[in-house]
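Bug #77: duplicate submission created two jobs. Keeping one. Sequence:
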Amino acid sequence: MNSTDLYNTVLRQIFDALCRSHPPAFGVDSVKFSKLLYEAKIQPNLLPIGDAAFLFASNLPPGITYEMGFGGFVRAVEWLAQQFYSEKSPKAKRNSPSKTLPGVQHAMMKWQLSRRAENDARDHLLAPLRRFCYETLVHLPSLSSTWHDIMDSWRLARKQQCMQEYALKYCAATRLRASWVGFVTWRIFLLRRQRMREERLAATKLQSVARGRKWYVEYQRIRRIVTRTQLRIHARSELRRLRAERAAFIERMRLRMVRWMRHHLWLLRQWKRLNA
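Kept job's structure:
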């Protein structure tokens, strides 16, 4: 337990219980404070009545002479714990007379001066204050219901802490599971998208290949038609050339034959004239 729980939970509950006791008030008067010391067996065994009255009066708030506030009650309990429940306190010598202790006025002034000089006074007083609360105040009959309430509040706080830890673990597990499910879902989406892209690319390639094959076949068909047409045109032109050459050859041969016939006919006439 830290100092905040000890001051705000235990001492506050004890102070509220003393304030609610008859007669109810907003603070703790000297009678209630003396009754608390008497039940704790501090007065008159360890602390005389006059010293207890001075301790009560020295912790009263300014302007009030009969009721002690929560701050004064805490300072008084701290002083009692420091005096009678610290490691150097003479609590083990309870049977010895109280005169072995120094006067409460001198001790109170010295303790207040040393308390002001310390920067971490509450941590210094926490160990004896715990001993005073858990070794003495817990056994007081008038504070039994208060201790039951404190224990119930601690149990409830512990249950709330356990529930909060379980909720944090459950939320962490839920977040981890949700993150894993999201990661798996996103991974499946990426794989499906990649597969769809590959399938779409393959289909596009197949379509392009099919279209290219179709146009290539059409191109080959047109090319064959053009080739046949060009060959036909070339054959026709060659045929015309051959026909023209044949006609020219025949014409040349006819002219030669005509010349030959004329020459031979002339020779024949000359022979006849000579032999007539």
